[in-house]
């Protein structure tokens, strides 16, 4: 996501997970900058000047060609707004990159709560839960022509994890996601819980 703050400054958001890596774009149009400086909280963490002068903090790697900064072995403390200044001769561009670090999404569990079925249809109530106590309950209405799941109750949060229950022709799926990662429970086959339907028949 990119938000423009001014004529020469943009805010770019990058999402990643703990212990992973992230590449922070410089937003620079220059393919061979003469000078690149990255900083956070007024502390310089990477500085490059042609032809080969480079100062950089551990866990960071600078691409001298485009000014991109790679951060490795990410920790929550790396969250913040980074400022990059890229110069090419007398021209200079400035951008801000917001780095957000998340825990990896927990693998959720999908359980069947109730099953009301009849000729050519099944109405299934299912619950999708995570190890940290988040859950969502959905009613999945299955017919030969349609597979629809709608939420009936939930206590998840877009700030930590968003739970989603969906139905395809063959199965019901439960997934847990945040802006940086997604994890899914094992699929629940339609034929296991709804004998009234045969996948693929219209």
TrEMBL record:
Q: Which UniProt keywords apply?
A: Glycoprotein, Membrane, Signal
Question: Does the entry feature the keyword Membrane, yes or no?
Answer: yes
Annotated compartments: Membrane
Q: Does the keyword Nucleotidyltransferase apply?
A: no
- Annotated Immunoglobulin V-set domain ranges read 32-99
As given in the record, the signal peptide range reads none
Q: Which InterPro entries match?
A: CD2/SLAM_rcpt, Ig-like_dom_sf, Ig-like_fold, Ig_V-set
One GO cellular component term: cell-cell junction
Q: Which PANTHER family match?
A: HEPATIC AND GLIAL CELL ADHESION MOLECULE, SIGNALING LYMPHOCYTIC ACTIVATION MOLECULE
Q: What is this protein called?
A: Immunoglobulin V-set domain-containing protein
Protein source organism: Synaphobranchus kaupii (Kaup's arrowtooth eel)
């Amino acid at each position: 996501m990119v938000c423009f703050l001014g004529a020469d400054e943009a805010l770019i958001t990058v999402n990643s997970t703990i212990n992973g890596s992230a590449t922070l774009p410089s937003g620079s149009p220059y393919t061979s900058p003469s000078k690149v400086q990255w900083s956070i909280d007024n502390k310089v963490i990477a500085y490059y000047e042609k032809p080969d002068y480079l100062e950089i903090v551990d866990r960071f790697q600078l691409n001298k060609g485009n000014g991109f900064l790679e951060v490795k072995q990410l920790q929550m403390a790396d969250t913040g707004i980074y400022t990059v200044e890229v110069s090419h001769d007398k021209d200079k561009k400035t951008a801000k990159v917001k780095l957000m670090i998340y825990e990896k999404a927990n693998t959720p569990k999908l359980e069947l709560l109730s099953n009301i079925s009849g000729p050519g249809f099944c109405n299934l109530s299912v619950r999708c839960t995570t190890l940290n106590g988040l859950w969502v309950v959905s009613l999945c209405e299955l017919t030969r022509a349609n597979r629809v799941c709608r939420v009936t109750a939930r206590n998840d949060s877009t700030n930590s994890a968003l739970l989603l229950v969906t139905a395809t022709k063959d199965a019901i799926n439960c997934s847990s996601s945040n802006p940086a990662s997604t994890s899914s429970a094992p699929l629940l086959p339609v034929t296991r819980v709804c004998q009234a339907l045969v996948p693929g028949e219209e």
